[in-house]
Amino acid sequence: MSYSIGQVEYRTNSGSNASIAEGVQQPYEISVITGINKARGIKLSVKAYPNPTIDNIVLEINNIDFASLDVQLYDMNGKLLQSQTVKSKRTQIPMENLVSGIYFLKVRQKHGEIKTFKIVKTH
């Protein structure tokens, strides 16, 4: 949300294919849609449970070589709290020492992020 202070009047100018309003803040939105057509045959399965959690999250990975994966846990401010390499199809992520709140668990491969989970930590 934004606003202007002290604006008394404004004027709109119209042309044959567009118009512009002078003195008024205008919203501007950029949308980018990306996709990978070659990835249609991938049957990747990544699950994080239980969610919400009290002490640990289990990350379960199927149909991908987990040896090239790592996991990162971030707080709501984007601060990296934990990072570890995935060593098996089921990886336990400890959260018992963290305060209650919302966290983000990112599963990454060397070339980029695969999936991000929103994790709720309770008492």
Task: Give the SSE map.
Blueprint: E1 11-14, E2 19-22, E3 45-49, E4 56-62, E5 69-74, E6 80-85, E7 90-94, E8 101-109, E9 112-121
Antiparallel strand pairs: 1-2, 3-4, 4-7, 5-6, 5-8, 8-9
N- and C-termini, Cα separation:
35 Å
Shape: elongated
Q: Can you tell me the CATH topology of the domain at 38-121?
A: Immunoglobulin-like
Low-confidence stretches: 35-42
Rg, Cα atoms, Å: 23 Å
Q: Strands across the major sheet, in which order?
A: 6-5-8-9
List keywords for this structure.
Immunoglobulin-like, three-stranded antiparallel β-sheet, 123 residues, four-stranded antiparallel β-sheet
Q: Overview of this structure, please?
A:
- The chain is mainly β.
- It has a domain at 38-121: Immunoglobulin-like.
- The chain has no helices and nine strands.
- It has strands spanning 11-14, 19-22, 45-49, 56-62, 69-74, 80-85, 90-94, 101-109, 112-121.
- The strands form three sheets. It has a four-stranded antiparallel beta sheet with strand order 6-5-8-9, with no helix packed on it. A three-stranded antiparallel beta sheet has the order 3-4-7, with no helix packed on it.
- β3 and β4 form a beta hairpin.
- It is elongated and about 65 Å long.
- The model is unreliable at 35-42 (pLDDT under 50).
Structure described in brief:
With 123 residues, this protein is mainly beta.
